[in-house]
């Protein structure tokens, strides 16, 4: 979101008065009634900024009575439970939550044809490859590209597995990869390669820690464990005895706050173990939390 605002500002499409946008450090020091935070998490993603604010797990922002949260989004089918969980958690913290069920604040997450055409006329791309939506949406986007002046042979419609070449500034569909596995010969390709190499370096330098806990699927309370096992970190089986009660305490606190989502609980375990290991050993092992519901 912030990145998109920066691009729009650089293109001269968005004019922001000086001093209006501030950094997080400055924002936390200003009176609450002078700050508007633009955050991710409108679809109830548990690890988004808004999701962590709702559970009281954000490192910098705390939701307090009197705060107002505006969800300017429509529900994606299947996300209803997650979104309403966030709304309930924010309401429990004392915030006034404005959403499409109580006010007309909804904005579309997908640009209509007019906005897409406006963007094409502003950017004036040499090639166009529509990537969002179903085939009917892709073809409609392609027609807008032709309308904006892009040559038809420079508009590429493709699907998963298609290979697109960009040679001499001309995008072309040149083949298709039938297998769902792709072998990459090299040290790294984009974020995926870098992430893989980083994980391997962490595993080699810091070792591997697996934390497993069994929780009640309804209450979220711990009913078994936690158990912590390591590989390449310490040969002492009692090395992690001290972190076990910390995990239990954090999960019990989350249960009292109504947190039962397994992914959120796994992230809580990860943070507790990671913080303890860093303070006790000054190491950064690979931590794999597992939460089993019964």
Please describe the structure with a list of short key phrases separated by commas or semicolons.
RNase_J_b_CASP; hydrolase activity; 294 residues; globular; two-stranded parallel ribbon; alpha/beta; metal-binding; 9 helices
Question: Can you walk me through this structure?
Answer:
Residues 197-294 form the Ribonuclease J C-terminal domain. One of its GO terms (molecular function) is metal ion binding. Pfam families: RMMBL (PF07521), RNase_J_b_CASP (PF22505), RNase_J_C (PF17770). 18% of the residues are buried. The chain is built from 9 helices and 7 strands, in the order αααβαβααββαββααβ. α5 packs across α6. Among the domains are: 113-176; 204-293, Ubiquitin-like (UB roll) (Roll), CATH 3.10.20.580. The chain has helices at 2-10, 24-27, 49-54, 80-92, 113-123, 135-147, 190-206, 244-256, 262-281; strands spanning 68-70, 96-98, 162-167, 170-176, 208-215, 222-231, 286-293. The longest helix is centred in the C-terminal third of the chain and has 20 residues, at 262-281. By secondary structure, the protein is an alpha/beta fold. The model is unreliable at 188-192 (pLDDT under 50). The two termini are 38 Å apart.
Per-chain topology:
Elements (H helix, E strand, L loop, with lengths): L1 H9 L13 H4 L21 H6 L13 E3 L9 H13 L3 E3 L14 H11 L11 H13 L14 E6 L2 E7 L13 H17 L1 E8 L6 E10 L12 H13 L5 H20 L4 E8 L1
Concise account of the structure shown:
This protein is an alpha/beta fold.
């Amino acid at each position: 979101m912030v990145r998109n605002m920066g691009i729009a500002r650089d293109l001269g499409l968005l004019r922001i008065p000086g001093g209006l946008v501030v950094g997080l450090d400055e924002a936390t020091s200003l009176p609450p009634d002078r700050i508007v935070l633009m955050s991710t998490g409108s679809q109830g993603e548990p690890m988004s900024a808004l999701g962590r604010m709702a559970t009281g797990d954000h490192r910098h922002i705390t939701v307090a009575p009197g705060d107002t949260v505006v969800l300017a989004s429509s529900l994606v089918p299947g996300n209803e439970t997650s979104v309403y969980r966030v709304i309930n958690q924010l309401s429990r913290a004392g915030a006034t939550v404005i959403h499409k069920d109580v006010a007309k604040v909804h904005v579309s997450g997908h640009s209509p044809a007019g906005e897409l055409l406006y963007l094409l006329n502003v950017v004036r791309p040499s090639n166009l490859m529509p990537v969002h939506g179903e085939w009917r949406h892709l073809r409609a986007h392609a027609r807008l590209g032709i309308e904006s002046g892009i040559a038809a042979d420079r508009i590429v419609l493709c699907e998963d597995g298609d290979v697109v070449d960009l040679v001499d500034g001309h995008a072309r569909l040149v083949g298709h990869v039938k297998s769902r596995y792709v072998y990459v010969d090299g040290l790294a390709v984009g974020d995926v390669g870098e992430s893989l190499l980083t994980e391997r370096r962490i595993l080699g330098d810091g070792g591997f820690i697996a934390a497993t806990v069994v929780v009640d699927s309804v209450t979220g309370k711990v009913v078994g464990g936690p158990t912590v096992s390591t590989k390449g970190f310490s040969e002492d089986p009692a090395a992690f005895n001290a972190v076990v009660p910390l995990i239990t305490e954090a999960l019990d606190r989350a249960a009292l706050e109504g947190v039962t989502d397994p992914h959120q609980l796994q992230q809580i375990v990860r943070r507790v173990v990671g913080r303890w290991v860093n303070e006790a050993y000054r190491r950064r092992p690979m931590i794999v939390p597992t939460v089993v519901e019964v």
